[in-house]
Write a structure and sequence with these properties.
60% of the residues lie in helices and 2% in strands. With 293 residues, it is mainly alpha-helical. Helix 10 runs parallel beside helix 11. A hairpin with a 6-residue loop joins strand 1 and strand 2. The protein has a two-stranded antiparallel sheet.
């Protein structure tokens, strides 16, 4: 998956910038990692010319900030030690090239012959790394996940609470369990796992209904487990004339029509009825968040 692009920098020392991207980023709650192809491009651009530059061009190269930039990108590449992506030989060549750049950069000699010899070894090390890097990149499989309806894949993976419209998405984050289930529902949507997404969004809705019930009953839920469920709580509140009757009536309809059937193992959701449950639950959750303290 494609992450945001990187602006070229000649010499990077800003630790905050260092933290703003990685070669790959684990996607919390999934087995996926998010890769940044632009990093590969920039690394290649920093190192690529080294195996072709003349001695005179290398003289000029070492008078600029380019060596520091090359070292930065190579070090950043090495920080992501993933044997499943880049070979040990490639990482060894990267470290060897860093050492060679530092060696030449710190070399204090007036001997033209010695400097040219060091440049020759530098070109060979750069060529060795680039060949290994190119070979590993060719074997790296990148897959694109198609967008689900109007939902952006990155938003679903990283900010699932935004299934709820603003400003209630931020309020949702104060309700840990409901927020976690909403985020998990969003991740399930990425792979169109409609039944799993429906299960999580129903759990999130039920968690907010429980919070709504608590707000009218001294912070407590009924003792019996069966009375703590979505529809049971809504019926109790309607019978006792607690809360917003319209909101509760809507929640009751959604619970009886969509949520209750979902608890049966043989029941599953597809692209036809999955979005109905999702949108209905989002509507109820949004109304609840609007009235919850």
């Amino acid at each position: 998956m494609v992450a945001s692009g990187l602006a070229p920098r000649s010499c990077i020392e800003d630790s905050e910038f260092l933290e703003c991207y990685w070669l790959s980023v684990p996607v919390d709650g999934t087995d996926m990692e998010r890769y940044n192809p632009s990093f590969f491009f920039l690394l290649g651009r920093q190192v690529g010319p080294l195996n072709e530059l003349s001695s005179e061009a290398l003289d000029a190269w070492f008078q600029t900030g380019q060596p520091n930039s090359a070292i930065f990108y190579l070090n950043h590449f090495l920080n992501r030690r993933d044997d499943l992506i880049f070979s040990k030989g490639c990482r060894f060549s990267a470290q060897h090239l860093i050492d060679r750049i530092v060696e030449v950069k710190n070399c204090d000699t007036d001997d033209e012959g010695e400097l040219r010899a060091r440049y020759k070894v530098l070109r060979e090390d750069a060529d060795s790394f680039l060949k290994r890097f190119d070979g590993d990149c060719k074997s790296l499989d990148l897959f694109r996940i198609p967008q689900v309806q109007a939902y952006m894949t990155t938003t679903l993976l990283e900010s699932g609470e935004r299934l709820i419209p603003a400003p209630w998405d931020e309020k949702l984050l104060t309700y840990g369990g409901a927020a976690a289930d909403t985020q998990n529902a969003a991740k399930c949507l990425v792979l169109k796992l409609w039944t799993a997404a429906g299960f999580h969004i129903a759990r999130a809705t039920e968690a907010l209904i429980q919070e709504y019930y608590r707000s009218f009953n001294g912070g407590e839920l009924p003792v019996k487990g069966a009375q703590k469920t979505w529809v049971s709580l809504v019926r109790t509140m309607l019978d006792q004339e607690q809360g917003d009757a319209k909101l509760l009536a809507d929640a009751k309809i959604v619970g009886e029509t969509y949520r209750n059937p979902l608890i049966h193992p043989e029941h599953s959701l597809d692209e036809a009825d999955g979005p109905l449950l999702l949108s209905a639950c989002i509507g109820v959750m949004t109304k609840l968040l609007a009235v919850l303290p």
